[in-house]
Amino acid sequence: MVSRSSAVTASFASTPSKCGSATREPLVCSKAWWRSRVSPWGRDARPRGCGGPTDARDGGSNPDRRDGETNMIDFRLTETDQTILDRTRAEALICRQYAREFDEREAEMIPDTLPETEDFYAGAPALPTAGPEDTQGPVMMLLQTMGSYWGDYSVRLRRPMRGGLGNAALAAAGTDEQKQKWGNLLLSMAITEPGCGSDPSRVSMTAELDEDTDEWVLNGEKIFVTTGIRATGVVLWATIDKSAGRAGIKSFLVEKGTKGFEIPHKEKKLGIRADDTAAYVFSDCRIPRENLLGLDESISKANSGGFRGVMKTFNMTRPLTAAMGLGIAEAAIDMTREELREAGVVLDYGAGPGAMGRLTAAAEKFMRLEALFEASKLTTLQCGWMAGEGLPNNMESSVCKAHAGSAVRQITQGCIEILGAMGISRENLLEKWMRDSRITDIYEGTGEIQRLIIARGLLDYTRADLK
Question: N or C terminus: which one in the chain shows less Cβ crowding within 10 Å?
């Protein structure tokens, strides 16, 4: 039998991490080292006195913990967290009702608001007031994202909970005045160009400062802009000095309707069809000088704060992207489990180590997919926990994104293979979820790019050393 905890431990052991340590950890880590950083216990089974956040709230202590050590990872939920997650799942089921319809109406602009959700929240009791001690913080945000996208990926993506990717960039690198002016708008983020994908140094869109009018003049093209049509503004990357490479890349805020800003077409896609993806063209598009995100006009590599600030955005959004994909993977697992139950297939989780050979092929494959899901989920939650503890998680954000991107694809495809013809039938949503899941490994940095980032971090290589 596949042990879920052993699968999770193997997942973490295969991708060593600094885990916030001030010094680099060895590349070969003992099981005891990993157990000291990853809790193998579930929400209700974890023993007290492990030094986790909940123990501190309840007055518990860990006599073995030395000063300066971080808390043991603890993913147990508070009562407030559980109430929010229960409500999130209920709303997700409403979104699921529209999944097939929205997928087939790709060419139409579908309303963002679902009438059932308005009635749902109107009749729901008020949530209890939550302080920092009442919630798991970033971990809870990831769990809520999983629960929300469990309903349907593309319908949920069309109704972003916390704004677009551009809003995250604004929060990471914008000035107080920019946050005040732009914070209430839905902002897309435009990076990809016809000749530039994952390498920002190849950005060809230009921004030239007109000293006479105190305006930036933008020229260039952006493609594959998520939420590109519905967004009311965009954060885009452009170079103010091509010879400076990455140091010359700056981010700019541009509002829809600005002269010289055109949307030539909307992309037709394999999946996430309910959410619009567009192309942008800028032709002598003039914007105020203060629309430079972060107001950093320097081109010094040591002082390119705006670029670094926006890059930090991905440390927040990559775990969220992983959580989004894991939501749809869990939906596929739940649907497949129910179909197997109705078919009389037994999933024996309590059997001994040699039981795998006595399981049916369908049960054996399904349980391996479940273990893969649990491994990816805990990898993602670890990244959120580190953010909540104030620990650096740039490499961990790439680990969880790379792992989830691959796992979600394997899980949705594996569930289809288990169910056979039923899996590809349009009578259920499994084939749609497989199409939607493919994006998890593509946007917010492809799996190949994440593995490059991980390798550079582990081996102390620079971008020039390892491309």
Answer: C
